[in-house]
Specification:
The complex is a heterodimer of chains A (about 300) and B (about 325).
Chain A: H1 2-27, E1 33-39, H2 44-57, E2 61-68, H3 70-78, E3 84-87, H4 93-101, E4 106-120, E5 128-130, H5 131-138, E6 163-167, H6 172-182, E7 193-195, H7 198-207, E8 211-216, E9 228-230, E10 237-238, H8 242-246, E11 253-261, H9 266-276, H10 278-286
Parallel strand pairs in A: 1-2, 1-3, 5-9, 6-7, 6-8
Antiparallel strand pairs in A: 3-11, 4-8, 4-11, 9-10
Helix pairs in contact in A: 3-4
Chain B: H1 2-8, H2 13-53, H3 57-62, E1 66-67, E2 75-76, H4 79-110, H5 113-127, H6 131-150, H7 158-182, H8 186-194, H9 199-210, H10 212-228, H11 231-236, H12 254-262, H13 270-315
Antiparallel strand pairs in B: 1-2
The chains are: A alpha/beta (about 300), B mainly alpha (about 325).
Chain lengths: ~300, ~325
């Protein structure tokens, strides 16, 4: 009994210790500066790639990258615990006000674009999907529950039930999907499987014949299928790709952001300038995202 | 006389070490109280804003609508989350009670020598498997297995999480149940055997009834473990807001909701405070369960002391 009750007490201790270590590292001035970079799960792979490349280029600056979701990064920026927050959605007005209240004026940088792909099990015969169909499935009050309502029969899914895979309610991907597909004032229908990460969505869809999910295009694997997406009944059906995200023809492509607290200076400014340079933009292109401008990466 | 007083009053290195260790042990003992009080004060303070300003008893306990990030109408109904936690824990107990009581009876009453020692070590090893590993087993092994065997659309559901959680709770329940069996005085067994009872009769008619309180406590601690477990449930339950009607429905647990959402909410927002309110609720429930288990354990111990005293006293005047 006693052992059991003391166990939770270890957690705050460990956290405090970890916080102290982070503070010690971040505060260590010297010749080496550390940039804390946190947020979007969609961006975490490319942020890691940027950090590694930059470390090789400028050994004097280290970039520490953490994922956790756009909300995590923005919350940390509001609380002043990170230098750069990555986000796959725009900051909300309420969040900007919170940040200003803490004396952190958020400055926004668009670092690239991402196509939000719809994922299906490879055995699923569906080749195209419209935003209206997605809204009828995911949106509150929607009436689609079975694959036969879409007019398809999915092998391996004998129950015909559609397994809706979504994201936890604070992820940037979740918020963007709500705004772009369901509309500003419509909520998600409850009962979806809310995965805790971009990759988890793809993993679950890969193993579940009845499933449909949405996640960043960069998380695609050979074991899932991505139908083309059309806007409106007579719109063109466009497949998700880096190119269709660049030219804007893909209907659910979104900008990806970095936010800093106040105008960045010194090492942080240099890092963001480098991320936005052709060199940095080629890295995001290689990772499966669209760069913000046309760059030649050959 | 002065020399004696001096000798008893000596303050050499050993004396100082003795004092230091005493204080250290006292601090260790007190820290449990300090931490538990500190945690309670912290979660209450963080959740207080919500509890006093925004809390709607009927919504919180009566509505399954948990939509804290809705842009126009955030609601904080925890019913589906409570039902999720309760259903997973309930199923976990169905799995773990027979397993762990069986294991405890075998280890405590039947196994001897090497078998017994090996089993005890193995059970303790089982308790050391990290919960994220259990969750991984649920996600990558149980999920496809359940889809295949039961022909259901998705294998992340109450059944999956219940089995995983049952296996996780079993070792701790086994250990505590075995302690409870061991606490039954041997005089009981000897008396029963002297009257010609077989080993099964001794176990079922004498030892189990005598250890009843301890066994209930073991089960309650298992329930507490199930209620508080987070990672494995997050991974295996499907994390879907749903009032379950069958073991094949996906659900979402209270703990998993906090784990998934707390990192991404701005400190001080309604959503943040609502998550802490879930935390307060969880804390109170697990506290009540652990407290009940403690009461049962003490009740059991008192009974044995009272009944066990007489024969011991007469044999050993």
């Amino acid at each position: 009994m006693k052992n059991l009750t003391t166990r939770p007490a270890l957690v705050p201790c460990t956290l405090a210790l970890a916080a102290a270590l982070v503070a010690a590292c971040g505060g260590g001035s010297g010749s080496r500066s550390v940039i804390q970079n946190k947020g979007s799960d969609t961006l975490v792979n490319v942020a890691q790639a940027w950090a590694e490349e930059y470390a090789a280029l400028r050994p004097g600056t280290a970039v520490a990258v953490t994922g956790g979701g756009s909300g995590t990064g923005i919350a940390a920026m509001i609380n002043g615990t990170v230098d750069i927050a990555n986000s796959s959605r725009k900051m909300k007005d309420s969040e900007i006000e919170l940040a200003r209240g803490n004396g952190n004026e958020p400055i926004e940088f668009v670092v690239g674009y991402d196509a939000l792909a719809v994922y299906l099990h490879p055995d699923n015969p569906m080749d195209e999907v419209s935003l209206e169909q997605l809204a009828a499935l995911y949106g509150e009050g929607g009436d689609v529950d079975t694959w036969s309502q879409y007019g398809v029969e999915v092998p391996g899914c004998s129950s015909d039930e559609i397994v809706r895979v979504s994201r936890q309610n604070n992820s940037g991907t979740y918020v963007y999907f709500r705004e772009a597909v369901l509309g500003e004032r419509r909520d998600f229908r409850l009962g979806s499987r809310d995965m805790h990460g971009s990759k988890d969505v793809v993993d679950l869809v890969e193993n579940t014949p009845c499933a449909i999910g949405y996640s960043g295009f960069a998380y695609a694997t050979d074991h899932v299928k991505m139908p083309c997406v059309r806007k409106g009944e007579d719109g063109d059906c466009v497949s998700p790709s880096v190119d269709s995200a660049i030219d804007g023809s893909y209907p659910i492509a979104r900008p990806l952001f970095m936010y800093t607290a106040g105008q960045p200076e010194g090492a942080i400014r240099e890092y963001i300038d480098w991320v936005l340079s052709d060199e940095g933009q080629c890295i995001i292109y290689e990772k499966g995202y669209a760069p913000r401008t046309d760059v030649d990466c050959s | 006389m002065p020399e004696v007083a001096h000798a008893a009053d000596r303050r050499d290195a050993a004396w100082w070490i003795d004092r230091a260790v005493q204080i250290l042990v006292l601090a260790g003992g007190l820290s449990a109280i300090v931490f538990i009080a500190g945690i309670f004060v912290f979660i209450t303070r963080e959740g207080a804003g919500f509890v006093f300003d925004r809390f709607d008893f009927r919504e919180f306990f009566g509505s399954p609508r948990w939509t804290p990030t809705s842009s126009h109408n955030p609601t904080y109904g925890a019913l589906a989350l409570i039902a999720g936690t309760a259903s997973v824990t309930g199923l976990a107990m169905l799995v773990s009670v027979p397993f762990s009581l069986g294991a405890a009876i075998y280890i405590g009453e039947f196994a001897t020598g090497r078998v017994r020692e090996t089993l005890k070590v193995l059970v303790e090893l089982l308790a050391a498997i990290p919960s994220v590993v259990w969750g991984f087993i649920g996600l990558s092994i149980m999920n496809p297995l359940i889809i295949q065997v039961f022909d259901v659309p998705v294998g992340l559901n109450v059944l999956n999480a219940g089995i995983i959680l049952g296996l996780m709770a079993a070792p701790i329940m086994t250990t505590i149940a075995e302690d409870a069996l061991k606490a039954v005085p041997d005089t009981y067994r000897e008396a029963a055997e002297a009257m010609g009872a077989t080993r099964w009769q001794v176990t079922f008619k004498v030892v189990l009834p005598a250890a009843r309180n301890g066994l209930v406590a073991a089960t309650l601690l298992g329930v507490g473990r199930g209620f508080g477990e987070t990672m494995a449930v997050l991974m295996a339950s499907g994390h879907s807001i749903n009032l379950p009607t069958s073991p094949f429905d996906s659900v979402r647990a209270l703990t998993a909701t906090i784990a998934a959402e707390l990192g991404e909410t701005a400190a001080g927002s309604d959503h943040y405070a609502a998550l802490f309110t879930l935390g307060i609720f969880l804390f109170l429930v697990t506290f009540a369960i652990n407290f009940a288990a403690d009461v049962f354990v003490r009740g059991g111990q008192r009974k044995h002391r009272r009944r066990g005293r007489r024969p011991a006293a007469s044999a050993n005047p």
